[in-house]
Amino acid sequence: MYTPHVRTVRRATALPLLVAAALAAGSLSAAQPSAAQPSAAPTARAAGPGTDYAADDPFTADRTSWFRQDRFGMFIHFGPYSNLEGEYTRPDGTVCRDAEWIMRNCNIPREEYEKQAATFNPADFDAKAVVAAAKNAGMRYIVITAKHHDGYAMWPTKANSWNLHDHSAFDKNRDIIAELKKAADEAGIKLGLYYSIWDWHDPDFPDRATFPAYEKRMYAQLKELVDTYDPALLWFDGAWQQPWTAEDGERLEAYLRGLKPDLIVNNRVGKNRVTDGDFSTPEQEIPDTSVAGQLWESCGTLNDHWGYARYDDKWKSSSELLRNLLTTSSRSGNYLLNIGPDARGRVPGPAAERLGEMGNWLRTADQGEAVHGAGSGGLVEQPSWGTVSRKGDKLYAAVTQWPQSGGSLHLTTRTGFDVKQARVLGSDQSVSVTKSGDGYDIKPSGAATNETATVIELTVDPGATAAPGSGTGLKQEVFDNPELSGEPKLTRTDPTVNHSWKFTGSPDAGVPSDGFSVRWSGTLEPRRTETHTLSTVSDDNVRVWIDGKLVIDNWKPHNVQVDQAQVDLTKGRRHAIKIEYVEQTGEAHMKLLWSSPGQDQQVIPQQQLNPN
Question: How far is Cα 559 from Cα 70, in angstroms, rounded to an integer?
Fold first, then answer.
């Protein structure tokens, strides 16, 4: 699916304006764009100075609630590359093996790739069966490749003829995306669509001089997808490739949010950074901890390929896959697990088998509570013998290394809390919990319930949390220079420090998009007495003081960066806070988040901030 050099980048004030009008559909032959296709890219942009692209806080927004709760989704890589089933025989008789990258990595001439795509006939694709397999596995959403890097559209696009409807042997009366959308809606499953910005087939993509013509067709296709299929999520890829720029990503993301304000978009809409989109996308890996500054989702394969490869029998066990899922949920992440249908559109048997086994485990004895709606264990350190996730007053310890008879499991605590009750899901054995050293010892009386992971549910009392405050935000002073000097251009109360001005925006229409600075001051009032992690997401200079002490100091110009500090805060006390920020040139971002053992990561909310 992706190039090996792609790397994970760690990372509502005002709704963005619609930055492009509805785009007229053009036509594109299988090989070349039509001469009648408009050559100019969408030119309408956001208002410029005064524009803020931060629509909400994805950690708490209603818009992203389903994504944060569902945790487990199905990825589907399916396209004309599936027709080759992983093997291409060269003219000299040698065989080259690959999957969704087979066109490029096996150097298949465009004409030859088009010829084989014309025979693509996934007549056995059964949307209801695919959705049923996802639901049976405990998956709550599906993301399918509407267009991969080969540029082939899996829906009847009007932007070109390089698509499943016009360039295949498939039934002209069928629409795979529409079928999947209908089946997903009926089953209560969310549908997302993958779209590659990089396009190997369109000759206008690689050259910046001709790129605007490609970009206009891309906007037209994305509007088709949003208007026709109403996806809950758009999953972009290929944005690392030139000539795509961060400015292009800014414009596209704002356009999409104008089309559908509640749309969720991944960070590959821009340049894979913590300030792009709503969530980051580590691939074939699971971060060691929750990702700072952004929601996240790890995507992975059932075997060694994304697309179908008939020879790939390196199937991961359902136990390994389940443990991946438990690990992601224990770190407040999602797991997007891929299937690759074959040339006829059938789900490989070993894939269906493993999905079924995962679903059986999740349904048994309510073990899925450790995943669906759960997040970081927070209150405890992650143990070596398994994982711990949290949902409300429940901790779910998924034990992969069960203690020997009479042995115990130690949990190291990160904050004070009491354990009220403990039980093994799916077993009537007793469980004792005793305070020991830096935490608790958990001693089950019987055997593990299964080989994958046995879940111990702990009902806890994390201690009193103060009621939400009545704050209105922080005092904000905006200067029309990068030195925080002179009289502020404007002074007001800012509800939260949650801003993505990006390239074209600024705090006020009277302040230019480059060369400004901002000071916030007032107090913050925590709801728990704990060591909190403060996180700033900034580009450029930033520094933060708590109770007069400088705790974050990154006062040199820098690109998008997350800085963190550990600070002890007391419930109900108003701690003095001051933040200084400078925008030099280029992009402008400034967010302030907090988290603690008992507080999930979020932008510090307005209720806990006061201007004095």
Answer: 33
